[in-house]
Amino acid sequence: MTQGYESARTADGATGTVLHLFERWARDTPGEPALITNRQSLTYGELDERANRLAHHLLAAGLPEGGLVAIGATWQADLVTGVLAVLKAGGVYAVVDAETPRTGRHQLAQLQALSPFALLTPEQHRAPLDTGSGLRTIRPDEEAAAIAARPGYAPDPAEASGRAAAADGPAGPAAAGAAVLFTAGDAPRPVPVGHALLLAAYRGWADLARLTPQDRHLITARPDVTAFAAGWTRALCSGGALVLPSTPCWPAGNPHPVRSAVEGHRVTVLHADPAGIGSLVVDGHRPHATDRGTGPRPLRWLRLVTVTGDRLHLDELDALQARLRPGVRVLNVYGLTESAGVGTSFELGQLPAPVAAPERLSLLGTPFAGCAVDLRDGEIHLTPPGGGDAVPTGDVGTLRPDGLLEYAGRVRHRIDLPDGHFEPHAVEAAIRTHPGIGAAVLARVDKAGEQRFVAYVAPPPGDPAWDASAPLPSVEGLRDHLAGVVIREVSPQIVVRLRALPRNRGGQEDRSALPLPTRPPAERTVQYGSKFTGRPATGALPLANGLLGGCLAVVIGFLTLLLTRFVWPGSTDLSAVPYPWAALFFLLYVAESLSFGAGLAFLLTGYRLLVRRERGRPDRWTRAVHLATSYLLLAWWPQDNAYRLAAKQDWPLQALLVYAFNIPLMIAAFVVVRYLTRRPPSPFDFEDRN
Questions:
Q1: Which residue did the predictor score with more confidence, 472 or 544?
Q2: DSSP 8-state secondary structure symbol assigned to residue 420
């Protein structure tokens, strides 16, 4: 099956590069804003002039035509200037992560096979990024200025306007390198990209998003990720402005700087990943019927939101749409680094009819202009814009009767079974239909010769209706919810609660970062062939502890009753008490002795039971409640006997008894109440690592 696209627009010129488009706007509208930051704003003319100066410096430093320059800067305005300068000097740019030197060093090591010419970075980033590789370092400030000031140096302005222009012609810039982009993840891989692909990707975006010079764009991705490293063209090739937030990348767990930039600079086009857009749009805002059409809406200047990096389900798209003002388009974009970030896109308006279970569907939509999608044995192959070989994506999909491409999982996530394999995506989609679960991942954990299916679940991002203290369904409750939809053999036997699914640098789900479930030795899973019961074995340890504690309590209680007359002489004398009250008081003494025996037995054996309840993860409250419960049982025997023998007017002794027994009993009761009101771990719940 093949899915293609036919554009209704005509291409504005058969040749050219993204650099030519930027330079045209710099020539025609030099006074219009190009880069907008909190510290300063640069017009197209100013940005073009800075890029020309830096291009002169690179040429003076000996940059050969087609030479690769790695750019590392935490301030994105410097980064964009460097990208344009490298292109103007006829080089190839690669943006490396200066914010995270460990990743930046890995990226530089990956570039060594491509023989980079130099690293363009400010002085403060040189040492953290380059650790003795021998790669030449060019500083865009002092050293570059010194090179330009050398006697006899007089660069040709036409040369700095772009060696890439020499590539125009019948062959065009198709074979000319423009950039090296990095894949997402903790081990990014370099992907060379040509001028033709960058231009075709931009045109695809311009056609889909209907870009205008009035637009102001904000890209929340890290500078080295494809969404930004190749995405600057959306703003600067359409005559719009690129807004840069106060922080160089999305601040994890803190969307306020980005929200401030969107509101303060009147951003109209926002590019984000699923986690970022969820925090920005959904967090803390729930629409009400009385809000619609009245009062200010959040992010009120937006007209378009694009979500890249990972898929969204239909219910998530609907939640975003409901929290934005009417008329805002929300696009879920699916693409590859090999295609400069473009591929397919989907928005709710493409649905021909409502769907019954939006939580289960993730639609990738239709291809960008110039792209094509091909399904081979269920795997999605994407042809980049402008042609070329189809690239296997590693994702599984189906082409629906309405012409929309549906996501159906990843090839590497397939789980092998003795009689074949199955796609966990179908189970994950069914889990998402359970109330309160917004994200789900099904994984198989092999440990100690046992194989069990684990469901990692998280609430909807930022949904104020979700109670963080509410327990998730038990594993049997979840399996019952999946009954009739998912076969019992592949239903989860463990439920792991997470605040949010881990994501990598590009915003994709990172299953390698999921916590490995650990379980106490007492828990066992019964296995019958390929079927799992999912029930912990009822080991003999709790029964043995209970029998031992009960026997100790009785024995110690009996001995306590006998020892009372020796420890507290006269405290149990009932000779002056008439019948039947004497018998009742005798029963009270027996109860006090048994309570003391139970307290001492619990003091000796109860901590192990509490540790088992906490699944091997005791904390200070576990030890506190162990001692408090023991004291609640132990205190009655000495307290009651001491009170009987104390003189009523002996105030020092009375005060001592109150503070030795009454006050500690109150504190012990408070400790027990605090412990019991905590959410106890589920027998199938494991450590929360987020």
A1: 472
A2: E
| Residues 2/10, Cβ–Cβ less than 8 Å | no
Tokens of 684: 């199938």
Residue 505: which of 218, 187, 265, 255 has the closest Cα?
187
Nearest to 287 by CA among 317, 314, 323: 323
- 459 and 498 Cβ atoms separated by less than 8 Å: no
Give the residue among 415, 442, 37, 505 at the shortest CA–CA distance from 242: 37
* pLDDT tens-digit series, residues 168-213: 333 333 347 899 999 887 678 999 999 999 999 999 999 999 999 9
Buried b / exposed e over 379-410, threshold 16 CB at 10 Å, is bbbbbbbbeeeebebebbbebeeeebbbbbbb
**Helical ranges in 11-117 per DSSP H:** 18-28, 44-60, 76-88, 101-111
- Residue 133 has φ and ψ, to the nearest 5°, of -80, -15
SS3 assignment, position 659:
helix
User: Which helix (H) or strand (E) covers residue 573, if one does?
Assistant: none
Burial class (CB in 10 A: 0-12, 13-18, 19+), 106: middle
Of 302, 271, 233, give the one whose Cα is nearest residue 34. 233
CB contact set of 101 (below 8 Å; sequence gap of 6+) = 125, 128, 129
Element (H, E) at 404: none
Check residue 406 and give its pLDDT.
95
Q: C-alpha 175: how far from its chain's center?
A: 37
Question: What phi and psi, each to the nearest 5 degrees, are found at residue 14?
Answer: -85, -20
- What's the 3-state SS for 223-256? CCEHHHHCCCHHHHCCCCEEECCCCCCCCCCCCH
d(CA 82, CA 144): 12
Among 461-470, 523-532, 545-554, name the one with the lowest average pLDDT: 523-532
Cis-peptide, bond into residue 492, ω within 30° of zero: no
Contacts of 136 (CB under 8 A, 6+ apart): 117, 118, 119
Amino acid residing at 186? D
Residue 105: Cβ-neighbour burial (10 angstroms; 0-12, 13-18, 19+): middle
Please provide the distance, in angstroms rounded to a whole number, between the alpha carbons at the two ends of the chain.
Answer: 41
The Cβ of residue 579 has, within 10 Å, a number of other Cβ atoms equal to 8
Contact 368, 6 (CB under 8 A): no
User: Which amino acid makes up residue 377?
Assistant: D
User: What is the residue-wise DSSP string for 466-513?
Assistant: S-TTSPPPPHHHHHHHHTTTS-GGGS-SEEEE-SS--B-TTS-B-GGG
479 within 8 A of 488, measured Cβ to Cβ: yes
Distance between CA 168 and CA 174 in Å, rounded? 9
Amino acid at 27: R
Q: Tell me what pLDDT residue 197 has.
A: 94
Neighbours of 376 (CB within 10 A): 11
